[in-house]
Amino acid sequence: MDMDMATDMATETATAARKRKETKAKLQSNSKFLLLASLSSIVFGSSAAEVEFSPQVNAEAVYTDNALLDNDNKQGGEIGIISAGVLSSVTGNDGEATFNYLARQTYFSYDSSQNQLFHDLDFQFDKGLGNSGFRLDGDARIDVQPANIAENALTDLISGDLIQSSTYGLGLRYGSNPGKLVEVSGGIETRLTSFEDDRGNNDSQRLDLRLANGSAEKKYFWLIDGEANRRESTNSGSDTYDAQYRLEFGLQQINGFSPFLKYNGESATEDRSSSQRSAEFESWGPGLRYYYDQNTYLEMSYNFSLDRSVNDDYIGAAINLEPTARTRLFFEYSKRFFGDSYAFSFRHNIRRLTTEISYDEKPTSYDRRYTLDDVPIEELRLAKTLRWQTDLNLRRGSANLILLDTETSSFIGGSGSNDHFQSLGLGYLYPLSRKLDASFDVSWDRRVYKRTAQTTNDRYNRWGVSLSQRFAHEVVVRYRYNLNFRSSDYKADYTENRISIDINKAF
Questions:
Q1: Is residue 322 part of a domain?
Q2: Which range has the worst mean pLDDT, 85-89, 148-152, 209-213, 313-317?
Q3: 81 lies in which domain range?
Q4: pTM for this prediction
Q5: Is the model's pLDDT at 23 over the cut of 80?
Q6: What is the mean pLDDT of residues 84-88?
Q7: Which of 46, 148, 284, 366 is the most buried (most CB within 10 A)?
Q8: E strand residue ranges, 147-201
Q9: Could you tell me if 375 and 383 are in contact, meaning their C-beta atoms sit under 8 angstroms apart?
Q10: Nearest-5° Cα angle at 54, 51 to 57
Q11: In the predicted model, is pLDDT for residue 106 greater than 70?
């Protein structure tokens, strides 16, 4: 009896705590939504604005044959999800705003303690401030993400173990008339990011400035371009800082040739309570561009290193190809404080096919989507990211391919960790009739976490087929089957089958 009473009291205490937490979250969410709505009203006013407003309700029923995601202990279960929200936009008065909100309540037949209310919010606005050249912009996002990517990086509302995350940003930008002698542009932005469990909370600021010759200048060209980023851990007060700046001055084209002088500088600092680490590099030198036409050029430069302990003198190169308005290719080689550096971008658009590819390298810090919790937020890391997206619009149907490869590692001391994330997704949509669509999607994900003591390798594979049918009064019914796999060096492997049906009604 004493043990039963203790268990009941513990259960009641946990339930009461959970209810207090949910009530607090609801109050915080409601106050945030009211604040955002008020801000939109103040910025855009009520006159001369076009407003679109579409409420949505949705009900979904799901069956899974492996609710615990454990092949050695397979248990089936049913999950219900009730959702309600709104899609809205405001356009006018030299500005635009979108406000999309969705509340989702989950119900688990096999474990009612997992029942939870989730909020999804996507709010964005951009507003010109008269004829001053200034524009005010902001955004707010609330969504869900895995509580611990080491346990399950692709968890969702069905498998559980999620947390709410929120990001709020506000910025001010300025752009001058490019037809004058000097063109000025730049901006400042502040951003606040927080998580339900407070791990990884941070605030950040960004400043960028660009001064260049305007189109009224016919003989010379010049450029002063720079940006600075700061990110601070809300919990520890430690921060990271990085800045890039470059200067160019030269003659405009003479028979296609354009000689110039350039200067590049970069610095990065991580400031912890116990120590401070920093790295920097500067170089300058002459360069020459040859323009094949107005937009296509080849650039070569010789760069003198101002700190040979970081890098020796080097030859830099860049090429920009724009044979048509539909095609652009850019490649650049240089040296930065971490050594050799490459940048690449490609865009090609022909009729129904669009392809975009990019590769960049930049300093960053803790990103909860890809980094384990053992990496401190104030540790500077080098991120190398490759993105590829291809969209194909057919006469009937559409297909897309998305590839992402990002690797982050500490580069000025730090933990010595390396996190590598790879993802490939394919999707195809085919209309069977005017009101019936079939779709197929598949994705492969691989996550490698290298630490001094060990390396873990997680692999995920998801397959899905759907059938969507549209009825009168904006009712859409979707039937879906999913097959999910995971193999891991760290956690148990699993295979999961899901069948679901959801009904959506728009007003």
A1: no
A2: 148-152
A3: 14-167
A4: 0.85
A5: no
A6: 96
A7: 366
A8: 162-175, 182-195
A9: no
A10: 160
A11: yes
Assigned token pair, 386: 């490759």
Q: What are phi and psi of 70, to 5 degrees?
A: -145, 110
- E-strand ranges in 196-238 read 202-213, 220-233
Within-domain flag for 483:
no
Contacts 24+ apart (CB under 8 A), 335-342: 335/281, 335/283, 335/303, 335/305, 335/311, 336/266, 336/281, 336/361, 337/266, 337/267, 337/268, 337/279, 337/280, 337/281, 337/310, 337/311, 338/279, 338/382, 338/411, 339/311
Question: How many other CB atoms are there within 10 angstroms of residue 502's CB atom?
Answer: 18
Confidence band (pLDDT; 50, 70, 90) for 410?
confident
What secondary structure letter does DSSP report for 473?
Answer: G
CA–CA separation, 358 and 364 (whole Å)? 17
User: Mean pLDDT across the stretch 354-382?
Assistant: 86
Whether the per-residue pLDDT at 45 is higher than 60: the answer is no
Q: What is the dihedral of CA 369, 373, 375, 380, to 10 degrees?
A: 30
Tokens representing 94? 């030299």
Residue 143's Cβ-side half-sphere holds a number of Cα atoms within 13 Å equal to 10
Residue 17: pLDDT band with limits 50, 70, 90: very low
In a domain, 47, yes or no: yes
Rounded Cα gap, residues 408 and 418, in angstroms: 6
Length of the chain: 507
CB-based contact 401:388 (threshold 8 Å): yes
Domain membership flag for residue 351: no
Q: How far apart are CA 148 and CA 142, in angstroms?
A: 18
Q: What is the pLDDT of residue 8?
A: 41
For 6, 287, 476, the CA distances from 304, given in Å and listed in that order, are 74, 12, 63
CB atoms within 10 A of CB 13: 10
Cα-to-chain-centroid distance, residue 112: 33
> CA angle at residue 376 from 170 to 235, to 5 degrees?
55
Q: In this predicted model, which residue has the larger pLDDT, 300 or 148?
A: 300
Summarize pLDDT for 276-319 with one digit per residue, the tens: 788 899 999 999 999 999 889 999 999 999 988 889 999 999 99
Number of domains in the chain: 1
**Do residues 481 and 175 make contact, with C-beta atoms less than 8 angstroms apart?**
no
Sequence-distant contacts of 338-341: CB under 8 A, at least 24 apart = 338/279, 338/382, 338/411, 339/311
